[in-house]
Amino acid sequence: MIMNNDWQVLFDQEIKKDYLLNLRYFLAKEYKTKHIYPAMENIFAAFKTTSLKDTKVVILGQDPYHGPGQAQGYAFSVPANFPLPPSLKNMYKELELEYGVPVNRNGDLTDWARQGVLLMNTTLTVEESKPLSHGNMGWQNFTDEALKMINAKEEPVVFLLWGAKAISAKRFLNNPKHLVLTSPHPSPLSAHRGFLGNNHFKTCNEFLIKNGLTPIQWI
What we know:
single chain, 219 residues, alpha/beta, 4-stranded parallel beta sheet, two-stranded antiparallel ribbon, 8 helices, 11% strand
């Protein structure tokens, strides 16, 4: 078992396809000859921690952090002993704006994942110091299928799509039971164009409560 939960259905479905077989061969070589992130055992960390059944919020990232030790297999998250990356700093700024309290937490978002927040990058691996280096290797086929499976869920899900690349996932999200929220990316380049002040964290929780689901403890 790769996934240890109901995401195994997705893996079993996709591993029969040429793109994922080719990607596995490619990665086996890359991990032996280069510095690739995250660690091989953490490639599917987001899926292993947040089952399909338990997913009630999706935060869509681009690809893993490309510096040593940063990538955990969760979008936007870094280990507790690392400095906050710029985008995550702005996510915490937005939480402070919405809730009116200081956010004194480290950058490890594992607790969000355990509450049902799928922190999914659309590309799941990267070469050191080369952002988007694996962007055309086929991962998006896999993550697109994951989005389709979440879209098919009967239970309401909130999708937080920040930035043009994430917003492009809207084409898979046509289930009226779900809530899709979009805004500019929290990157310093775009956060002041509409990410800060988007009220997405509160809006997400209001929707979950309205639908009888436990809200996320963001802070």
